[in-house]
Structure formats: structure tokens, C-alpha cells
Amino acid sequence: MTVSRTGPRRRRATTAGAAVLLVVFGGAVTSCGAGTPEGEKAPQRAELAFQDPVGTSYLRYIEKSEREWASAGAYDPFSVNLAASTVSPGRGQVSARNIKVTVDTTATKSVTFDTMNREQGCKGVRGLVTCTPKDIESGEEENLRLFNMVVRQDAKKGQAGAMKVTVTSDNAPTISFTSQLVIGSPGLSARRDLHPASDPIEPGSELEVRPAFGNEGDVDVDGDLSVAVEVSGQATLRRQYSNCRYDKADAPKKALCTIPGPLPVGAAYETDRPFTAAIDETGSQGKITVTLYPAPNTPTRDLLPDSAPRGSGAPLGFRPTDGSHFDHFDRELAFGDMQFRTTRRYDRQVNGFAIKGKVGQTREIGVMDAAGYFDSDSYVTLPEGVSLIGHQEGEASEMLFCAYTDEKNRKVVCPAPDNPLPVLRVRIDKRVEGAQGTISVKPDSEHPDPDLTNNTAPITMEYVD
What are the tens digits of pLDDT across the range 332-360? Predict the structure, then answer.
């Protein structure tokens, strides 16, 4: 069974039978300032940042028997995802001007770089590719596809050198990032069932999960591995292991563990001790997700700072295990998850959320209850200054969108999910300080709800200048 995980990460496309990898680089931003003569208004500065760091770029290896039919599409497009922001938030919009992206490929081997994207102003001369994309306004993000990478026919699997990306701008500090090219692709896999139990568990109890991962690809994953754990719903993680960082010191919901590699081709490992989730005393349901990445490719959404709290116990490790009953995933990640219900399952609960953006922008929110999924409709009263955009002509019919029930009073219903979560799509029409709405769920008509106080939660506004 092959599984793909949706989300903000890039996805492979297929051209003429060959895999295509969208490579996105990430790095750190350093800022600097300059004084101005007294009486002159200082020019507003911008900041640029790479989104979703990928420290190791795996390129598809073409076997000799495949080269004839695969040659037309045997390339990996290279992209840089940039986000702009202001150095001084609250002082209005600013654009990062005259951006220049330079990619130094002189240290690479067995890879050629061609099909420069003229729309991004890309040119290549003696191993240096320079591109001049359009200005990026603060608060915006641009995915810049720059060129294609092609593995040469005489290439061997393994390390293919480093590529350095540098971005400059007239009014933003220089940022840079280096990625290691590897010819060949790991094929990560994960144990299908995180936990065999399917019966309801007791509120206030603990639930242990022991994830397992393998590599069914054609190259080893060298270096450290990241295991990201997230709990949604009425449960939290125990802060257990010293090589794991947690999002909070008390009752964390996320953990990011760094475990030494490698993960060789053909190997399968499970964690040598379990992760423990503590179920709330009034918990009804929830979900635990565990994801494996090569450490340099951990996406921004799963990163935690070095200063984050760590566990107090011995470090978590891997031990060999049987690789049967594993699901095969895209080559750069693998995940397992489980949903749980307790004997208090009929206590319907809902989470509040914030609508964040600029006036005039459209935002989409995946609507869910406090457990990360729900069994029935939810009801929304939109904050003042916000209007609903429902299902549009040309959109897939299976997509679920919230719809007005009383437009004048900003009343909206979001349908129960049928695989995809319903989407609340809104436009921020004007700024209304203190504007607030609500989201609520109704009790189960066939079973008493033991706590009606958690059936409604607030919707707030966060305006971006």
C-alpha cells in the first residue's frame, strides 16, 4: 500500500514515467541596520526567509534498463520558496526589491542543470545560475521554480556534492543555504498500526505507541533522523526523552526527537521505548501522529527551537524489528497515526481559532472539533467585517465548503466531513477592532452530552498590517 501525506510539503510529479522532486530550501535570516541623517525618514527594511528547509536533495537514479524510455522526463525541478516580512511590524507594507538568487553548482558532480526558467530571469554560466524574480511584498510567499536537474547516464548512486543558494535584495539582508545532492532515493515506510487496541479507553488513562520505520529505496539515509510526534484532541504527551524537544514544559502536544542514523536500505527499526500520551480526565477522543524525516529535511511546521524544553529521561533510540505490515510512502517521509475514543465519547467539544490576514485577503480554515475530527455539522457565526466564500464554479464536487444559512446575521453551517474536512473560506472585508464570532457543535441527539460548556468556542481576528 502506498500512501501520500497531504499538507504544505512539496510533492513529486511524474513526467514521461520519471519521478519529479520539487526541491525547496530553508535557512536562517540575519538582520542588519543602518543609521540615517537626523530628520530623514529611515527607509523601511524587509526580511527574506527560505521556507521548509531541505538539507539533502535526493535525485532519482535511472537504471540502465530504464534510461531509453525515461530520458525525456528524467529530471528534478529545482525551486526556492521565499517569504518576505518587514523588519519593523506595524509600520505598513514593504516589498523586498530587486531580488537576486544565485545558485553555485560548481561543487556538484554527475548532475547537469538546464532548462532555465526565463520567467524568473534565470541564466547559467560556468556553474553559476543567477535568477532575478519579481519583488515580494511583506506577508507574501513565492515558490520560484528556477531550473531542472538531470542525473548523467554514467552517474553512480551516492553523494553528488553540495549546492549553495544565496539570495540578495536591495533592502533585505543576504540569506544563504547549502544542500547536499544525493543520487538515488530512499523509500521510507512506516508500521501501519501504531496501536492494536480499538476499544474505547478510559478518560484519565495513558496510551503508549511505539512507531516503526523502514527504508525500501535504493540509497541509505545517512546522518540523523527526525521523529515528529503530535497529539490532537483531549490528550497530551509525557515529557520523557532527553533527545526530544517539546513545544511546552507542561502538557506538551508536540515533540521532535533527533535519533542517530543511518537508516540503511532494507532495514526496519522501531523506537526502543514507547511515546506516552496522557488522556484528559474529561477526554472523549483524539489522534496521535508520528512522522519520520531525514533530519536536514524536517519541515518548518514540525521544527522546535533549540531552547525548547527537553525530556528528563535517557535518550530515545531505535532497535531492529520485522518490516512486515508497513505502508510505503514518498521518499522523504513516512508516518503512522491512530485515532482513539474514550468511554466518554458523546461529550462533543469544539476548538476556537483565529482568522489571520490582511484586509482584502481570502483565508481558508479546515474546520474540526477539539479532537481533530467530528461526526456532525458545526455552526459558525462569522466575526463582523468578514464574509463567506462558498463553493465556486469549477471546483471539485467532492470538496466540502461551509455555506450561509443566514447571510444577514453571518450565520454559517459547515457539513460533517466525508473524508475531506469542510473548509471555511472567508474574505476579510474590513478591519473591526474586537470583532469576534463563534463555532459550536450540537449534542448527539441519541446520547446525553455530559458537558455542554465545551460545545461552543470563540473565533477571533488577527489583522496583519
Answer: 899 998 888 888 878 888 888 899 988 88
pTM for the model:
0.73
Nearest to 455 by CA among 387, 376, 401, 393: 376
**CA gap 459, 352 in Å, rounded:** 5
More confident of the two residues 43 and 163: 163
Pairing, β 172-183 against β 56-59: parallel
Integer angstrom CA distances of residue 35 from 239, 242, 387: 46, 44, 44
- Do you know the residue count of the chain? 465
CATH no. for 353-463: 2.60.40
Identity of residue 136: I
d(CA 269, CA 231): 22
Structural element, H or E, at residue 108: none
Q: Which amino acid appears at position 389 of this protein?
A: I
The ranges assigned to domains in the chain are 48-183, 188-341, 353-463
The architecture CATH gives domain 188-341: Sandwich (2.60)
Cell of 289: 501522529
Whole-number Å distance between alpha carbons of 426 and 7: 20
CATH number listed for the domain at residues 48-183: 2.60.40.10
Residue 261 is placed in which grid cell? 542514523
For 432, counting Cβ atoms within 10 Å of its Cβ (0-12 exposed, 13-18 middle, 19+ buried), the class is middle
Condensed to tens digits (0 to 9), the pLDDT of residues 84-118 reads: 988 876 566 789 999 999 999 999 999 989 889 99
Lookup: cell for 291 = 512522522
